[in-house]
Amino acid sequence: MKRDYYDVLGVDRNADESEIKRAYRKLAMKYHPDRNPGNNEAEIQFKEAAEAYSVLSNSQKRTQYNQFGHSGIEEAGGFGGFGFQDFDLSDALRTFMDGFGSFEDFFGGGRRARSRSRKGGDLRISLPVDLEEIYSGVTKTIKVKRYETCKECIGLGAASGHMPSRCITCNGSGELRQVTRSILGQFVNVTECPRCNGTGEIISNPCRKCAGAGRISKKVEITIKVPAGVSTGNYMTLTGQGSKGERGQPAGDLYVVFEEKEHKYFTRHGNDVLTELEVPIYQAVLGDAVEIPTLTGKAKLTIPPGIQSGKILRMRGKGFTQLRGSRRGDQFVRIQVKTPTSLNKKQKALFEQLKASNGRAEKISVRKVKS
Ligand SMILES: [Zn+2]
Ligand SMILES: [Zn+2]
Questions:
Q1: Cβ contact 226:129 at 8 Å
Q2: Which CATH number covers residue 80?
Q3: Rg (Cα) of the chain, in Å, rounded?
Q4: From ligand 1's centre to the CA of 255, what distance in Å?
Q5: By mean pLDDT, which of 275-289, 306-320, 345-359 is the weakest?
Q6: Which ligand lies nearest to the CA atom of residue 158 in the structure?
């Protein structure tokens, strides 16, 4: 059960902005991981406070939270749809670090500018699936190479025992504004701060493991639920599952594009499955019940007597389920009558008999080709 954000910060529901700031700052000081090394409980409290603060300090999010509680925030995508687990510790630390400036700019707008420029990259992978898996839906584990938060420096980029410091050139905003006046009016030119490369902070002792980037390229396994009925080109967006940004900036997204694997027997046509069945001449003449492969394994198919080559039989409901629907496709089986090519003496005699007994009832006929 998630605690109420007001309870977490220990403030009244009517608390104003500065009360909320003060309460958060107190908690952040108390539970900061640097002051509580190895203390999981403190880390949880610290994150909890940071999360509560990030919502209650934003008037729009706060209104949503007051009206709908935690669900209002999650639906609005306040935490990338992943809730608390995905809340990055380095993000919480960063909010805290901003507090080392003067009280007025304690929670300055600098973070927003940096988030824009340092977001992690989006990734795209294609995932081959067989038709049987598409039929039933499947859970797959895929390997993805992406940037992960460096554990050594928890994404801050500074060597252990050190903290990044605020860039004095841009005062932590990561950008420089130059105002030019001309007869046409005033122009504001915004450029990335060259001293800190737009990060807003300077790392004098970079982490050795990630060289100060705060992230490390790593192969990770991700489990994906492939919904039944997908087709080639359909894709899933996994928000926040792309590469982590530099030094704790938000992660990009992961796009998983599905790709149908070629099947030994089946051709897909929308929700239907097509297959061809070669039938010996005696079965075509006399009819039979046979077992043929379907997406769910073998199933019985009745071949009516006297079936012709090219005739298509339908196996109802043996196709795919419509994606985001319940309609099921069918399996269509095209019959191909197989004329025997090597007969022994006895068999040849039997065909001769057939021919003689048939008299003139069946003969060749010429027809126009239908275009
Ligand atoms: Zn590192
Ligand atoms: Zn700077």
A1: yes
A2: 1.10.287.110
A3: 34
A4: 27
A5: 345-359
A6: 1
pLDDT in tens, 3-42: 899 999 999 988 888 888 888 888 877 887 777 778 888 8
Instruction: Answer positive or negative: Cα dihedral of 303, 305, 309, 310.
Output: negative
Residue 161: pLDDT over 90: no
User: 314 CA distance to ligand 2 centroid (A)?
Assistant: 69
Locate tokens 């699936």: which residue?
Answer: 129
Dig out the tokens for 368 from the structure.
């126009």
| Mode of pairing for the β-strands spanning 165-166 and 201-202 | antiparallel
> The whole model's pTM is what?
0.59
Of all ligands present, the nearest one to the C-alpha of 160 is 1
* 95 within some domain: no
Of the candidates 114, 135, 93, the one whose C-alpha atom is nearest the C-alpha of residue 297 is 135
Distance 176 CA to ligand 2 centre (A): 8
**Nearest-CA neighbor of 25 among 87, 84, 76, 100?**
100
Domain count within the chain? 2
Structural domain boundaries, residue 306: 267-358
Average pLDDT on 153-174 reads 88
In a domain, 142, yes or no: no
For residues 179 and 1, give the distance between their C-alpha atoms in angstroms, rounded to a whole number: 51
CATH (domain of 315): 2.60.260.20
Q: Look at residue 40 and tell me if it is in a domain.
A: yes
Q: E strands along the chain, which residues?
A: 123-129, 138-149, 165-166, 175-182, 185-192, 201-202, 215-226, 235-238, 254-260, 267-269, 272-280, 288-294, 297-303, 312-315, 331-338
229 domain residue, yes or no: no
CB 320 within 8 A of CB 229: yes
